Amino acid sequence: MSEQTNPRTHKPYVIEQLCALTGIKRAAYYKWTHRKPNQRELDNEVIWQFIEEREARDYGIYGSQRMTRLINRETEFHVNRKRVYRLMDAHGMTASIRKAKVDRKSQKAEVITANILDRKFSANEPNQRWVTDCTELQYGIDTLNKVKLSAIKDLYDHSIIAYNLSDTETAAAVTITLHRALETCPDAEPLLHTDRGSAYTARIYDLELRQHHITHSMSRGGKPIDNGAMETFWSHIKDEWFDLRPAGTFKELVALVDAGIDWYNNGRPQETLNGLTPNEYRNQTVRKAS
């Protein structure tokens, strides 16, 4: 405060002048400069340090709501969202903005089934309802190289139970993903929901589902919201993982996908799962059943 200069004389203000300009009594100013922070202010410093370190580690992906859950989960403090919002806002910290996605067009549909799932994006037990989809990932210089990532999500605990990288989105590629899911959950006979992409409307894929007693549900044409649970997953993992960690080579991308799926299943608590990660929620169910 005493380092401010007078714009007319270009000389430093003295405390008396500054207090007169601001209408603050000298005694009040000196009392303020010698005050000790109260316990809440000290706690806020510790909380802010946690926020800053966590955001730096995870590339600034958290908003106040998710950060509140992390603080309550991983520290000794129990705070509400307003307090966390004020701390983040005071430091100009916000989460990354999510981008809308565009549904791709159906091609060469051989098999079309009804929308049996009907946007019921929940389940009463593991392996009751699965959703699946493909998305495009990029790598290399100027991200010129492109591959497809296929994944299957369990609507019970939101876990990704299988995934596969391929050059293109084909019935063979998504069938590999299905086989990996069945290796993980060998007794599963779920309802499996897909969009109407050519890989999922192929007769060979439909026969594969029938062979494993899996009921096939499909989105309506031009209605990506019918597979909203999968679209949400892609949005989260791209915004919070892939977009922040560019891969230079295919080998790097493979490692990035493996690490990203593991992070989503084991390191990303979700409010709709009572603040647990997908695998924590799944394991909790297994323990209760036993």
UniProtKB/TrEMBL annotation:
<dbReference type="Pfam" id="PF13276">
    <property type="entry name" value="HTH_21"/>
</dbReference>
<dbReference type="GO" id="GO:0015074">
    <property type="term" value="P:DNA integration"/>
</dbReference>
<dbReference type="Pfam" id="PF13333">
    <property type="entry name" value="rve_2"/>
</dbReference>
<dbReference type="Pfam" id="PF00665">
    <property type="entry name" value="rve"/>
</dbReference>
<dbReference type="GO" id="GO:0003676">
    <property type="term" value="F:nucleic acid binding"/>
</dbReference>
<dbReference type="InterPro" id="IPR036397">
    <property type="entry name" value="RNaseH_sf"/>
</dbReference>
<comment type="function">
    <text>Involved in the transposition of the insertion sequence.</text>
</comment>
<dbReference type="InterPro" id="IPR001584">
    <property type="entry name" value="Integrase_cat-core"/>
</dbReference>
<feature type="domain" description="Integrase catalytic">
    <location>
        <begin position="122"/>
        <end position="286"/>
    </location>
</feature>
<dbReference type="InterPro" id="IPR025948">
    <property type="entry name" value="HTH-like_dom"/>
</dbReference>
<dbReference type="InterPro" id="IPR050900">
    <property type="entry name" value="Transposase_IS3/IS150/IS904"/>
</dbReference>
<feature type="region of interest" description="Disordered">
    <location>
        <begin position="268"/>
        <end position="290"/>
    </location>
</feature>
<protein>
    <submittedName>
        <fullName>Transposase</fullName>
    </submittedName>
</protein>
<dbReference type="InterPro" id="IPR048020">
    <property type="entry name" value="Transpos_IS3"/>
</dbReference>
<dbReference type="InterPro" id="IPR012337">
    <property type="entry name" value="RNaseH-like_sf"/>
</dbReference>
